[in-house]
Automatic annotation (TrEMBL):
<dbReference type="Pfam" id="PF05685">
    <property type="entry name" value="Uma2"/>
</dbReference>
<dbReference type="GO" id="GO:0004519">
    <property type="term" value="F:endonuclease activity"/>
</dbReference>
<protein>
    <submittedName>
        <fullName>Uma2 family endonuclease</fullName>
    </submittedName>
</protein>
<dbReference type="InterPro" id="IPR008538">
    <property type="entry name" value="Uma2"/>
</dbReference>
<dbReference type="InterPro" id="IPR012296">
    <property type="entry name" value="Nuclease_put_TT1808"/>
</dbReference>
<keyword id="KW-0540">Nuclease</keyword>
<dbReference type="InterPro" id="IPR011335">
    <property type="entry name" value="Restrct_endonuc-II-like"/>
</dbReference>
<feature type="domain" description="Putative restriction endonuclease">
    <location>
        <begin position="13"/>
        <end position="168"/>
    </location>
</feature>
<keyword id="KW-0255">Endonuclease</keyword>
<keyword id="KW-0378">Hydrolase</keyword>
Length: 181
């Protein structure tokens, strides 16, 4: 007979209530809660550059964009994530803490999060019906991976030079601008 430790299952409502007063951000995946690690200065610079450009493009299209502190709901995976940048163009997507219908999600990769961002998060994000693009941005190389919805499929566009084109917001940004300094 084994004495397996069981983690308590946390409901989405309990998670959301606790998250509103938490001192540390947490992501939620099907009843389990995971604390978020801090970001490097390099990570923060890339998020700020990309986020500013995305927010301006989103506002021009009647959309909005948020950096770091707004959750995305993935209903099909019973999950809440904090992407680095998220844009939504859906009328009525007005929950003050959660984006339910994102058009674009950006994750800046780090050593501690890359595996989860590439596998779990990307796979779960692809289940969001409104989502048109997922962008994974390397910190240490000039490399941006854009995953675009093409009908029922997702196609990858890997940018290592030139411009980063985000069709969901009709935005073109020089790769060099993301990696200044």
């Amino acid at each position: 007979m084994t004495n397996a430790l069981r983690k308590p299952w946390i409901s989405p409502d309990d998670y959301l209530s606790a998250e509103r007063v938490a001192e540390v951000r947490h992501e939620y995946v099907d009843g389990e809660v995971f604390a978020m690690v801090g970001a490097s200065r390099r990570h923060a610079q890339i998020v700020a550059r990309f986020g500013h450009a995305i927010r301006q493009a989103a506002l021009r299209r009647g959309c909005d964009a948020y950096l770091n502190d707004v959750k995305v709901r993935v209903e099909a995976a019973n999950a809440y994530y904090y992407p680095d940048v998220v844009a939504t163009c859906a009328p009525g997507d007005d929950d003050p803490y959660v984006v339910h219908a994102p058009a674009l999600i950006v994750e800046v990769l780090s050593d501690s999060t890359e595996a989860v961002d590439r596998r779990e998060k990307r796979a779960n994000y692809q289940k969001i019906p409104s989502l048109r693009e997922i962008v994974l941005v390397a910190q240490d190389d000039r490399r941006v991976e854009i995953y675009r919805r093409d009908g029922p499929h997702w196609v990858a566009d890997i940018v290592t030079e030139g411009d980063v084109a985000l069709t969901s917001l009709d935005l073109t940004l020089p790769l060099a601008a993301l990696y200044e300094d």
